[in-house]
Amino acid sequence: MVFNCKMCGANLEIVKNMRICKCSYCGSYQTIPDISTENRLNLFKKAHRLRFDCEFDKAADAYREITDIFPEESEAYWGLCLCRYGIEYVDDPKTGKKIPTCHRTDFERIYNIPEYSKALKYADEIMYTIYTREAEKIDDIQQHIISVSAQEKPFDIFICYKETDENGKRTEDSFIAHDLYSALTREGYKVFYAAVTLKDKLGTEFEPYIFSAINSSQAMICVGTSNDNFNAVWVRNEWSRFLDLMKEDKSRFIIPCYKNMPVSQLPQELQGFQAQDMEKYDAQTNIVKSISEIFSVASDTKEQLKSLFAQYEMQMKSQLNKIHRYEQEKHAQLVNEKLNAENLYKQEYQSYSTPLVLSIFGATVISSVLTGILTEFADDDSLILISVSWFIALGLILAFLIPPKYKANKEAKKRLFKRLAYDENAVDYESAMKNLVQREEAVRKYQKEKISAEAVLGILFMHFVIFAPFAGILTTNIFNTDQFISISLWEIVPLFAIIPFIFRHNKKAKQRYSDRLEGKDNDYDT
Prior knowledge:
Blueprint: E1 3-4, E2 11-12, E3 20-22, E4 29-31, H1 38-52, H2 56-69, H3 74-84, E5 87-91, E6 98-102, H4 114-121, H5 125-149, E7 157-160, H6 172-186, E8 191-192, H7 194-197, H8 207-216, E9 219-224, H9 227-230, H10 233-248, E10 253-258, E11 276-277, H11 283-295, H12 299-339, H13 341-348, H14 353-374, H15 380-420, H16 429-449, H17 453-479, H18 483-492, H19 495-517, H20 522-525
Parallel strand pairs: 7-8, 7-9, 9-10, 10-11
Antiparallel strand pairs: 1-2, 3-4, 5-6
């Protein structure tokens, strides 16, 4: 199956049943979804292509379609996280490696959104580690953008438009936007107009300033001369974010301005607002008049606006203070957990000895009750039933008590990996990803080679219930021995061979696992 790199778009060489791989083109390590069927593959191809093209709203819809069909697909939830923050992977000019950049900043941290929680919930250990590392990078970018935007003065109006066409020439939209900018600034409004506002920001990320302007602006003017221009990636990105803010703040408003097109060709989301036809001679005058009426240039209203902007700045500073405190506390907590990871794992680990003792006790009680019932009319067959019932009861009770312990211990192991993975600065990212791939391969081979606890229980159950009784009856018929004694011997004696064999086999598998983590697996795999 052909699948594309989520960072550079090149074809990936995917190994069957693996959920992480390295792109041979850009060298990036990444998680991959379960694409075992044609339907899954096509759904993820569609979602990844839209996100790769920065069509984040459409990509999010595609990922939601996947989660509706496959509610436990962690990669789809991770895709929703990337769409929410507008994550695009670009080349780092210093290293040449792919790094995330953010086009849709949000005050809500990635750690607190439900999509991230579900991505971790359904991820395996290696995917879990990669998600947490990527989340740290995204969160760092987010907090940097918020920090920079907090230093910016608030805007009154945001003009949203497409600056250049596919040939790099200025669009008609940009000329309309410039005229509106000039008219509104003459009226005393502080207007965000990218061609002017971002002119002295060359060489820096634009997102902090766009984020600050969108969040502080009371009004947005969206200019377009075609449906394609209204739906251009970055134009749609801006007005869709402002529409989200309008849902929470009813005092905000948006004015779609169109030209050379019928109003019916406006994007569906903008058709519910009163639009201005820029082909009319008085369109610009009407826009300025409408904004003046809504804003109300009276001095008392300006004071109210100043108060609102002051509150906004205070909220930003308060948010930053909370972020700094949270980061310090979280860092201290994670460092402490890393140092005490093994001890915490021992505390969380649930021993199997208690259910084993309870199972033996329960099986003994059950078989004792049967013995009391059958004592008066006991014969050889009933004695066999008493003997076998002990082992059947033991197996059934173990089957009831062991799985919850196993599940809890598996979660504890996942938390151990997460704690040990913290402190990304300890190694470079490339080495960290190579170690993760090496660890995943070692874990996969170890799980394949070892005899699991479930398999051991299955072997013992088959031995006690089927093999031993059959062998005991066969021995009795051949050698004319006491049937009860024969079955009892077959129940007990083989355990002295089975259990040591399982123990030695798993000990060797564990040693091979340790060697593979250190890169010493050549002797085992050749």
